[in-house]
Amino acid sequence: MNDVNERKLAEQIHRELGQLTNLKAPKTLGSRVLAAIAARQAAPWWKTSWINWPTVIKLAFLALGIAVIGGLVLAGTAILQFSTLTSGVAESVSGMLASLKPYYDVAARFGRATGLTLSSVGPTLYWTLAVLVGVAYATCIGLGTLGYRLVFNRI
Length: 155
Known about the structure:
The chain is mainly α. Helices cover 80% and strands 0% of the residues.
């Protein structure tokens, strides 16, 4: 903006502000502000800003953070070292998984049979299931709302 527009804007703002009436503060404002300040000063240290925490606690917090980061670094190193040892473990795990193959075969056959059954039925079943799911969802929302209102005496 140029100087002329800025000056006009400043004059217009000054005129508008000059037309406003002065508002009086409520009589209880001072006591409420003082009560809020007293409540904030009486708050325990852990409910204040981190800057206002005691120095010993800040240092302990810093040490804990460094310990967690160090633990993560050590865990990452251990995982890398462990990965070189897993070749023998992988063979034993594959042997255990081979014993589960009959159960997998039964589950796969059941899945294929379910898929064939669902593909042979019409869309009426799908719409019926969708309506049932919607009714169940609405029931859960309603019961949750009722429980909330009962617990917090909102009824």
